[in-house]
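Researcher: Next entry in the queue.
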Amino acid sequence: MQTLYWFIPLISAGIGWFTNYLAIRMIFYPRQPIRWRGLSFQGLIPKRQRELAESIGNIVQRELVFPQDIANSMRTPESQQQLRQNLEKKIDHFLQTKVLRIAALYSTLNGLEILQKMKRAIITEVVAMLPDVTERVIAQIEESIDFKQIVVDRIEQFDMEKLETLILQIARRELQAIELLGGVLGFLIGVVQVVLLVFL
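Model: Structure for this entry, 200 residues:
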């Protein structure tokens, strides 16, 4: 009889651990709905993937990504300078590869001098246009890019196996702690049962 008393807490601990383990697995499984006698069973995340995507999309749009922030970052002097440098490289490459053939018809000195003048003239014109072009790009971003829908589409297309792996990597310790807690609580419940059996 005393041996049975020892088994009760252990069995309760096993049941508590397995219950939490199964509950965690049911977050992801079954991936596809299983129907039985009018009832449908499916993992929480696969079943509500659309709602999850919508919720995350709303949070991203409302709390994390603001078109105005992107616009402001494009207006900074650093961004404008970086854009100018990139344009200069593109223009220089174009002149060197395309126009240099024409410049080669002149003497080397005159050809290079003309090339440099063309480069400076083009860069001056392009740089003068940068603020207007930047504002047009910003307006286009604000009007046409739906950050929420981008997030929703990405999450809906996300492979469920990869999503499971990602979540388990992020929350592995917490999920293992939940499983262990189930075992501990089950053990304590078993101890209480033994105490009640012995003293009542």
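Model: The beta strands are 34-36, 39-41.
Researcher: Noted, moving on.
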